[in-house]
Amino acid sequence: MFRRRPLTGCPINDTIVDLSFNAVGAVIVTLWGTAYLTDVSDSLSERFDQWYETE
Fold first, then answer.
1. What is the DSSP letter of 55?
2. What is the pTM assigned to this prediction?
3. In angstroms, rounded to a whole number, what is the distance separating the alpha carbons of residues 55 and 48?
4. Distances (CA, A) of 55 to 4, 40, 43, 46
5. What is the C-alpha separation between 48 and 37, in angstroms, rounded?
6. What's the rounded Cα separation, in Å, for the pair 6 and 11?
7. How far apart are CA 36 and CA 43, in angstroms?
8. Residue 10 dihedral angles phi and psi, to the nearest 5°
9. Cα atoms in the 13 Å half-sphere on the side-chain side of 39
10. Which of 15, 26, 33, 49 is 20 to 30 Å from 9 by CA-CA measure?
């Protein structure tokens, strides 16, 4: 039916391209996630400060 390529049949160039795309994607997600989650963590911090405020 279908012929499968063995795992070792992938050329090294394909692996390098995959790793490069993964690295670029990781940088993009890191930058976006840092900007997004900074606002979320600040909001949560303020909310917890209000809940546990002692006078």
1. -
2. 0.55
3. 15
4. 70, 26, 21, 16
5. 16
6. 11
7. 11
8. -80, 130
9. 4
10. 26
Number of residues that make up the chain: 55
Could you write out the DSSP letters of every residue in 2-53? PPPPPGGGS-HHHHHHHHHHHHHHHHHHHHHHHHHHHHHHHHHHHHHHHHT-
Tokens 């993009």, located at residue: 28
Burial category of 24 from C-beta neighbours within 10 Å (exposed 0-12, middle 13-18, buried 19 and up)? exposed
Q: pLDDT tens digit string along 6-46?
A: 666 667 888 899 999 999 999 999 999 888 888 888 888 88
What residue type is 41 in one-letter code? S
